[in-house]
Amino acid sequence: MVKVVPDTLRDEAVQRMTARKVTGEKVKDIAADLNLSVGCLYKWVADAK
Question: C-alpha 40: how far from its chain's center?
């Protein structure tokens, strides 16, 4: 089943993923906070490029 998420959530996730080198935030923490999988986050970042 595909989970439909708002564009704002996707935008926030990509922004946090790209800023994590500066913030030191871990991918697993971002995923847990947004209730998403780690794989989903990496896919969204790749799609945003």
Answer: 7
